[in-house]
């Protein structure tokens, strides 16, 4: 695990499947920093409450730079009882964002359906 910078705010993600009105338990997520260096800093699945539980939420591994988060939406729905077209319309949406003030917390509320998504910087 990368050490936590002094005063790092972290990156948290909360995903909700609004097509069914439930937290997105099991949604796959890959978070990578792409600039100044490229590499995955967190990956895994959302917990039962839809939160991505990882040490990046507490600031571990978070530095100033450009980040990209990928949400495995098609795989999430393919593992559920919700039918999808073949191929699915929304497969793996990517959201790219920058962090300049490492001391601030960056919360990403991700709301989605098989047809679209909403994502923004939530409460700091």
Report what the structure shows.
The chain has one helix spanning 73-78, and strands at residues 11-17, 22-23, 28-35, 39-45, 65-71, 94-99, 106-113, 116-119. The chain is mostly beta strands and 124 residues long. The protein has a single domain, classed as Transthyretin/hydroxyisourate hydrolase domain (Immunoglobulin-like, Sandwich), CATH 2.60.40.180. Strands 2-1-7-8 form a 4-stranded mixed β-sheet, with no helix packed on it. Strands 4-3-5-6 form a 4-stranded antiparallel β-sheet. The model has no long low-confidence stretch (mean pLDDT 93).
**How many whole angstroms does the radius of gyration measure?**
15 Å
At the first level of CATH, the class is Mainly Beta
- CATH fold naming: Immunoglobulin-like
Quickly give the CATH architecture: Sandwich
> For the terminal residues, how far apart are their CA atoms?
24 Å
Oligomer: single chain
Percent range of helical residues: under 10%
Round the mean pLDDT to the nearest integer and report it: 93
What is the helix tally?
A: 1
Q: Structural class of the secondary structure composition?
A: mainly beta
What gross morphology would you assign? elongated
Number of β-strand runs: 8
Number of domains: 1
Q: How would you spell out the order of helices and strands?
A: EEEEEHEEE
Strand order of the largest sheet: 2-1-7-8
- In this structure, how is the largest beta sheet organized? 4 strands, mixed
Q: How much beta, percentage-wise?
A: 35-45%
The low-confidence runs, each spanning 5 or more residues with pLDDT under 50, are none
CATH superfamily: Transthyretin/hydroxyisourate hydrolase domain
